[in-house]
Amino acid sequence: MLPPLVRKTWRDDRRAIIGWAAGVGAFTAIYTGFYSQFQGAAELKQDALPQGMLDFLGIADMLSPAGYLQATVFSLIGPALILMCAITLAARTIARPEEDGGMEFLLANPLSRKAFAIQRLTAAASAISVVAAVPWLLLAILIPTIGMDVPFGNVSAACVGLIALAWCFTGIAFLAGAMSGKRGTVLAVAGTIGVATYMANALSNVSDGMSWLKWLSPFYYFIGADPLHTGWHPAHLLLLAGIGVATAVAGVALFDRRDVGV
Hints:
Helices cover 78% and strands 0% of the residues. The chain is built from 14 helices and no strands. It is globular, with a radius of gyration of 19 Å. The protein is an all-alpha fold.
């Protein structure tokens, strides 16, 4: 039996969870479904983009099925949607009720503050994981249906990387909320880190002198090793998950110690 606070959090956030899952699902299905139409003009469309732009976006090619998926689902918009979902739901765990004045009611439950934070985080992280897994479930259906010649094991590696990236930023956003108790701070901190680290990875692709920046970016560990072509990279996945766990643990500890606005 799941803890009551986890179930309550899911109920409170159900519309947001369903909305994010539907949006991510629609994006994945639409772009993947365009593959057969895209193939007829793929070479022209790739030639239309400057090589520098392709390098900046981390797109190796747009001609192969794996390259098409990387360019559409896994390059920019797909991860951006997942991270916006992760940051938004993580901001609801502590920052929203504290800022809205509802924390006193939630803390009236017979729970320690540490248990309260863990259960709120568990509910949010599990919901975010479900949303981040939507592309994986849809691609399992669409790839054989459309006839895309890409190993599903490689697709799975990229999809698990997307889930690990979501965990990474869930932890970061949760830590920001646990420290500040303000949604604006969560959105600013997590959003700034997301944009800055995406740019770091992108710039590392276009300049040899800035190639070291990739090691600072979660996006490199998600897609930089090109799992759609090369398969699994367990060390990268563990690092992303480890950042998420470490920041989440730090958030729980800080929330347990600081004064909370009720």
